[in-house]
Amino acid sequence: GVYAVSYSPPKEGSVLTAKVRFADQDVSCSPFVMTVQPAPEDASPFKVYGDAATKKNLPASLPAKFQIDAPKKGTPGSTGAKEDINVSIKGPDGKSLVPKMEQVEDGTYAVTFVPDECGPYNVSIKCGGKDVVGSPFLLQAIPTGEAEKVKLLEAIPTNQEYGKKNHVAVDAREAGTGAVTCKIVSHSEAGDVDLEVIEKDGFF
């Protein structure tokens, strides 16, 4: 039910009228007028590349990666610090994911995250509070493997003892490409339950 519209605006100063319709009727606030503004000068030195930035369709449950090339220290537009770059990722449920960002060399950062369910992911990359060129962008996590071939090796107890560490054994050896992801939601407390998924030879 979520649609993403991509387009390239014409020359600077152009005035555009956009109409958004559903079932041949204008939606709320449609039509609306837009004016094409000049591109931000300080964002152009940044480059974002990698599978997660170019493929758009990514396999769910597997790590997605992209890289950010920022101006090196001493060059125009240089941030000078990793802390100046902010990567924000929101999943299909609207909740934020925490990506892992590592500096691989001066001015180059590798970003990794796991799209743990199918659907759209909104990725925003900002420097100094401003979007870099191409940000935000939309990724789509698609099914992979054969989930119907995954087996639970034991029944999950309906009653859990407070303070006791519990585990669930899963056999995914015949499920093909993909990984097991798990989410446990607490109905009495805000947020999800902390957990860890460990893989060994197709068992989780």
Short description:
Keywords: Repeat. This protein has 204 residues and is an all-beta fold. It has one helix at residues 51-54; strands spanning 15-18, 21-22, 25-26, 32-35, 47-49, 57-59, 64-69, 85-90, 96-97, 100-105, 108-113, 119-127, 130-131, 137-142, 151-152, 170-171.
Question: Main sheet?
Answer: 6 strands, mixed
CATH architecture of the largest domain: Sandwich
How would you describe the shape? globular
Count of the domains: 2
Q: How far is it from the N-terminal to the C-terminal residue, by CA?
A: 32 Å
How does this structure look, described?
With 204 residues, the chain is mainly β. It has two domains: 41-142, Immunoglobulins (Immunoglobulin-like, Sandwich); 145-204, no CATH class. 2% of the residues lie in helices and 32% in strands. It has one helix and 16 strands. The protein has one helix spanning 51-54, and strands spanning 15-18, 21-22, 25-26, 32-35, 47-49, 57-59, 64-69, 85-90, 96-97, 100-105, 108-113, 119-127, 130-131, 137-142, 151-152, 170-171. Strands 6, 8, 9, 12, 13 and 14 form a six-stranded mixed sheet that branches. Strands 5-7-11-10 form a four-stranded antiparallel sheet. A two-stranded antiparallel sheet has the order 1-4. Strand 10 and strand 11 form a beta hairpin. It starts with 14 loop residues before the first strand and ends in a 33-residue tail after the last strand. The model has no long low-confidence stretch (mean pLDDT 78).
